[in-house]
Amino acid sequence: MFKFIRWLIGFCIFIAICLFALYCTICIVFPIKYIDTIEKYSQKYDLDPAFVCAIIKTESNFKPEVTSHKGAMGLMQLMPATVDWAVEKIPIEDFSYDTIQEPETNIQIGCWVLNFLGNQFGENDELIAAAYNAGSGTVSKWLGDTKYSRDGEYLHYIPYGETANYVKKVKAYEKIYSFMLDINEQVK
Q: What's the pLDDT tens digit per position in 139-165?
């Protein structure tokens, strides 16, 4: 009996170590940086912080200095035309183009854009992610085409491979970040 108890304790310790190692690995692969800023603007623009984290992970892997070959900048990979449009609509204190890659400014504008898309597409995260990647006009066209949407509200097929993969990644990452943020909230 004593050997069994010793084995059981050892097994439980082994499982605990494995779970801790898994959590540490997930934290490395799925970082949660700038969480205060993400939560601030997620709350302001009525977004799920896990969704915002998933967008950032997909767009830039939480690297604020990233600029794409198409000119998208920062954590949320904002295009200059999108920034021009957004700053006309929202007041941003001390805005200049030099601040676009700063996490605070980039996340504020990106969250505002996600909220705008949410208002346009009924808060459907798949459509919001698709529109963030391919453009809202493109997604609206797809919704009006029976090849891509049966009901005009959901897409059963996304014709752009890049956008289809983007939406899949965002959905998967959102689940992971939802889990991680829940754990972080419980630890607080």
A: 999 999 999 999 999 999 999 999 999
104 classed as catalytic: no
Pairwise CA distance, residues 42 & 31, whole Å: 17
Other beta carbons less than 10 A from residue 179's beta carbon: 13
pTM: 0.87
Q: How far apart are CA 1 and CA 39, in angstroms?
A: 51
User: How far is Cα 56 from Cα 166, in angstroms, rounded to an integer?
Assistant: 12
CB 127 within 8 A of CB 57: no
Set 59, 93, 102, 104: catalytic member: 59
Structural tokens at position 88: 């006309």
Check if the beta carbon of residue 60 is closer than 8 Å to that of residue 76.
yes
Per-residue b/e over 7-42, b at no fewer than 16 CB within 10 Å? eeeeeeeeeeeeeeeeeeeeeeebbbebbebbbbbb
- Residue 132's nearest CA partner among 59, 75, 71 is 59
Number of H helices, E strands in the chain: 8, 0
